[in-house]
């Protein structure tokens, strides 16, 4: 059986990239809801419908688990998904917990970046209320980064001015960690690094999600021997066009360059 990955678009590739390091011998389905991306600006009920349509399709392909490789989709629907399906549903959330733990004794603040919908959701606010006793967490929506990545726009001359303008609202010297709370944002780690002071940590939830997936599969005895094959679907349509497949290759190549792999 395969492992299913779902995202509103191509952001979840950043999670799959790290998962392949942890589970290189599994086979995967990657479902990008390209017809409806981005989710961040859309009403919650509309997004929930898209999520359930996608996950239902993935499960019908015969998978041992589904990774909701999208912070927005996790915040909107993870509990309902787990109540609906019997197989493991792995979600992800902005890495607020490790960020707060790192910074609480350093007299530094934490900046959580994500989509507007993720930042509005009760799930995130409950998490922050539980962890942030020192009131060191600030929130910053960066919706244009989703659009840039979906267009494969990684030109610094285009992206850096936007990112610089948004981050200029904060004195970054007073921050110890920037949380990349949307999977799309991990494509721009190198640009965050150029703008942030050298002491600022950049963290996302990708490797933690991959590790959680592996642990869950081991606990349920669901590990399978495959060859790392990935089958791509765009909104339920299998990707066979060479140009479309090449688009995914470009994303893996960019992540390899950013991560120095």
Automatic annotation (TrEMBL):
Catalytic residues, chain numbering: 70, 182
Function: Provides the (R)-glutamate required for cell wall biosynthesis.
Pfam families: Asp_Glu_race
Family annotation (InterPro entries): Asp/Glu/hydantoin_racemase (IPR015942), Asp/Glu_race (IPR001920), Asp/Glu_racemase_AS_1 (IPR018187), Glu_race (IPR004391)
UniProt cross-references to HAMAP family, sorted A to Z: Glu_racemase
Annotated Gene3D superfamilies: 3.40.50.1860
EC number(s) given by UniProt: 5.1.1.3
Entries under NCBIfam families matching the protein: glut_race
Catalysed reaction, written as an equation: L-glutamate = D-glutamate
Annotated protein name in UniProt: Glutamate racemase
């Amino acid at each position: 059986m395969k492992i299913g990955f779902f995202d509103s678009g191509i952001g979840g590739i950043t999670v799959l990239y790290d998962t392949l390091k942890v589970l290189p011998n599994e086979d995967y389905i990657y479902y990008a809801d390209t017809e409806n991306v981005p989710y961040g600006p859309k009403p919650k009920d509309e997004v929930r419908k898209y999520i359930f349509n996608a996950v239902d399709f993935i499960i019908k392909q015969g998978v041992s688990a589904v990774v909701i490789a999208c912070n927005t989709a996790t915040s909107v629907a993870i509990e309902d998904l787990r109540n609906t399906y019997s197989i493991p549903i792995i979600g992800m959330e902005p890495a607020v917990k490790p960020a707060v733990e790192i910074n609480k004794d350093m007299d530094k603040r934490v900046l959580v970046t994500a989509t507007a919908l993720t930042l509005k959701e009760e799930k995130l606010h409950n998490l922050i209320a539980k962890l942030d006793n020192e009131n060191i967490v600030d929130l910053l929506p960066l919706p244009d980064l989703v659009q840039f990545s979906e267009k494969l726009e990684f030109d610094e001359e285009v992206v850096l001015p936007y990112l610089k303008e948004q981050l200029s609202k904060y004195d970054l010297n007073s921050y110890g960690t920037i949380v990349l709370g949307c999977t799309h944002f991990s494509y721009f780690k190198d640009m965050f690094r150029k703008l942030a002071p050298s002491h600022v940590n950049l963290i996302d939830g990708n490797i933690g999600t991959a590790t959680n997936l592996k642990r869950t599969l081991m606990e349920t005895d669901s590990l399978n021997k495959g060859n790392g094959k990935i089958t791509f679907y765009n909104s339920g349509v299998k990707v066979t066009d060479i140009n479309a497949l090449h688009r995914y290759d470009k994303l893996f190549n960019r992540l390899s360059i950013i991560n120095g792999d």
